[in-house]
Amino acid sequence: MDGLRLRLVFPPAATAIHLVPIWNLIKFMATPSTAPALFAGGLLGYVMYDVTHYYLHHGQPTSEVPKGLKKYHLSHQFRIQDKGFGITSSLCDKAFGTLPPLKLSN
């Protein structure tokens, strides 16, 4: 059960299954020379997102940027669940109006 407690990323086997239709969609929409680059870039972005999410829960950041990301993400997890969906950035929360308030009003 400890393995499940620590799992904060999408299971690799399920990821592989989902990648087949994504690859086919990219091949359909892109040229043969750009499809591998688009697929690899998307996959790298997803892996970086998952690694960052795992680190924000289990890592002990020492510099300001990761500390801020951890505080921002844990605020979404434990304080205001319906705001602050961005894990690696607050950019989308600003764009979609889901930016959490700095302080909760009592």
TrEMBL record:
Keywords: Endoplasmic reticulum, Fatty acid biosynthesis, Fatty acid metabolism, Lipid biosynthesis, Lipid metabolism, Membrane, Metal-binding, Oxidoreductase, Transmembrane, Transmembrane helix, Zinc. Its cofactor is Zn(2+). It is a multi-pass membrane protein. It is found in: Endoplasmic reticulum membrane. One of its GO terms (biological process) is fatty acid biosynthetic process. The keyword Protease does not apply. Pfam families: FA_hydroxylase. The keyword RNA-binding does not apply. One of its GO terms (molecular function) is oxidoreductase activity. Residues 10-98 form the Fatty acid hydroxylase domain. It comes from the Eukaryota. GO terms for cellular component: endoplasmic reticulum membrane. Belongs to the sterol desaturase family. This is Fatty acid 2-hydroxylase 1. It comes from Forsythia ovata.
